[in-house]
Structure to design on (554 residues):
């Protein structure tokens, strides 16, 4: 465990001091602030503030357009950049298991992404301070759901980052997988076939806006997001150990 | 400490290593030589646990790098060919992180980091980032990383590359000190005088195959060149020299009655006796010192495989 925590601390530190990450945070908060401003200016949200969490956390533009891009950019350096600048070799020859390497990097990215979503909670705190009546169960539910969705996107991004030292491929590949997971179920969700049924049950924005952001923590949605994250982490692990396994 | 038995590595259709076998004991330094693409880095990457072998066995302290990779890696300090550290961390921070990665107890990490920094002479650079270091100090940081936790085995890929003569001298001293501590060290290098100075043995590989594995002294004495001055008829002396046969591998005329001959050092006395018996009036006999560059050139250009 000492190796795991050493790597986790290093990854968190590197993220915390990287100027690129602050550029990402600035873009994220600016766009969210803009979206928040537009949202609370609309009449139907002013009439019912409980609609705000589903919009910001689930069905709004944030999830559809922005969220798939940020985790790949955050995870870019975790394997692809390390591969490119040759720092991966000293890491993988140290006495640390490949699974610990994957988990430490994943956990560091997840912990850091809490900062991204934590900023959104701050907007709700501002509203609360100005006397708005808020449904905190929906806000916290939406926050938890969005975090779980982000953690899934981080897992896919780590997988794409593990492909090699090509940063464009790592970022593009991660974003492509994330967009596929968002859009493919949306294409088939109105089908009456089995595919339609599967699509409806795996439509990520619906899982968030109709479940978590409606203050409904559905064990199916939780397990779906957790297991899918675990699958991509396992694929990342396989990608890493294949180097040692395949002679 | 290090045992390699019939180690082979295949990249697709390319055979990068072909049945490499060698062992390195405690307090021994092995220089791994070969032209670019010979398979040196591949061999070292396998020994560091970074790459798997296609066949054969590589063990560190009896632990197979394939089956007990984690335990074996804990015994190895590895310096890759192009050592790079994350630029976000200061030198001391990087070493503390690596000490954690190598499972050194939290309370001992600061002392261990200070120890290795002093050992390689980078304690004055503790608050510098990697990119701010000169090539020599970058290499020293890599070696300091290798030495964390005092692993008994060191694998160094091109440790002298890019160093100036003074830095090489320092580095030689560091390696000699580590040898005195009883470390088993394998390093690859293109800087042959350095290898000649510090290695106990060399392994020359070419196209992935072992060309020669021998003690440095033994290697330098094989086919030593001898300058022989004679008296009398030049042509007659030359023909008699050639008749000496087995003991001489070649004879070249340097000037009238002076010949440069390659003689197997162990048969030098026999050869001289034979020359005198054949009536050559030897008036002078001197050996010329061969260096590792001559030996290296000879083995990598010769098609024959030597064990």
């Amino acid at each position: 465990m000492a190796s795991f925590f050493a790597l986790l601390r290093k990854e968190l530190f590197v993220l915390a001091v990287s100027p690129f990450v602050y550029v990402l945070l600035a873009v994220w908060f600016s766009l969210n602030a803009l979206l928040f401003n537009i949202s609370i200016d609309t009449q139907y949200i002013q009439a019912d503030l409980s609609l705000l969490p589903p919009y910001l956390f689930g069905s709004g533009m944030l999830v559809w357009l922005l969220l798939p891009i940020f985790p790949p950019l955050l995870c870019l350096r975790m394997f692809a950049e390390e591969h490119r600048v040759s720092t991966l070799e000293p890491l993988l020859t140290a006495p640390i298991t490949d699974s610990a390497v994957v988990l430490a990097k994943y956990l560091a990215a997840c912990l850091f992404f809490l900062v991204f979503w934590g900023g959104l909670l701050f907007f709700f705190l501002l509203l609360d301070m100005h006397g708005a009546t808020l449904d905190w169960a929906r806000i916290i539910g939406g926050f938890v759901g969005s975090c779980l969705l982000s953690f899934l996107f981080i897992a896919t991004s780590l997988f794409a980052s593990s492909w090699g030292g090509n940063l464009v491929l790592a970022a593009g590949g991660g974003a492509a997988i994330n967009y596929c997971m968002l859009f493919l179920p949306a294409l088939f969700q109105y089908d009456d076939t089995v595919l339609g049924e599967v699509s409806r049950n795996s439509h990520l924005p619906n899982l968030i806006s109709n479940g978590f952001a409606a203050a409904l923590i559905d064990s199916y949605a939780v397990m779906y997001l957790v297991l899918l994250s675990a699958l991509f982490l396992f694929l990342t692990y396989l990608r890493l150990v294949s180097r040692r396994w395949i002679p | 400490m290090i045992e390699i038995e019939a180690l082979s590595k295949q990249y697709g259709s390319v055979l990068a290593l072909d049945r490499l076998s060698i062992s390195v004991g405690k307090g021994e330094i092995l220089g791994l030589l070969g032209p670019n693409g010979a398979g040196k880095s591949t061999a070292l990457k396998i020994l560091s646990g970074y790459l798997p072998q296609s066949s054969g066995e590589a063990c560190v302290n009896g632990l197979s790098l394939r089956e007990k990779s984690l335990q074996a890696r804990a015994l190895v300090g590895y310096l890759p060919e192009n050592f790079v550290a994350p630029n976000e961390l200061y030198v001391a921070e990087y070493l503390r992180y690596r000490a954690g990665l190598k499972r050194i107890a939290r309370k001992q990490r600061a002392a261990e980091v200070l120890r290795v920094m002093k050992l390689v002479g980078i304690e004055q650079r503790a608050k510098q980032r990697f990119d701010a270091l000169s090539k020599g100090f970058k290499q020293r940081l890599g070696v300091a990383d290798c030495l964390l936790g005092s692993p008994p085995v060191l694998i160094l890929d091109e440790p002298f590359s890019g160093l100036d003569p003074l830095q090489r001298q320092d580095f030689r001293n560091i390696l000699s000190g580590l040898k005195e501590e009883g470390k088993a060290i394998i390093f690859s290098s293109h800087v042959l005088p350095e290898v000649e100075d510090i290695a106990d043995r060399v392994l020359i590989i070419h196209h992935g195959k072992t060309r020669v594995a021998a003690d440095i002294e033994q290697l330098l004495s094989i086919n030593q060149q001898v300058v022989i001055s004679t008296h009398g008829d030049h042509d007659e002396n030359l023909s008699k020299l050639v008749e000496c046969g087995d003991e001489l591998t070649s004879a070249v005329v340097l000037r009238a009655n002076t010949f440069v001959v390659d003689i197997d050092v162990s048969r030098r006395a026999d050869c001289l006796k034979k020359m005198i018996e054949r009536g050559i009036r030897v008036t002078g006999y001197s050996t010329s010192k061969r260096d590792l560059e001559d030996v290296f050139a000879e083995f990598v250009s010769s098609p024959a495989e030597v064990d």
About this structure: DSSP finds 14 helices and no strands in chain A. Chain A touches chain B through 28 residues (CB under 8 Å). Chain A has a mean pLDDT of 86.
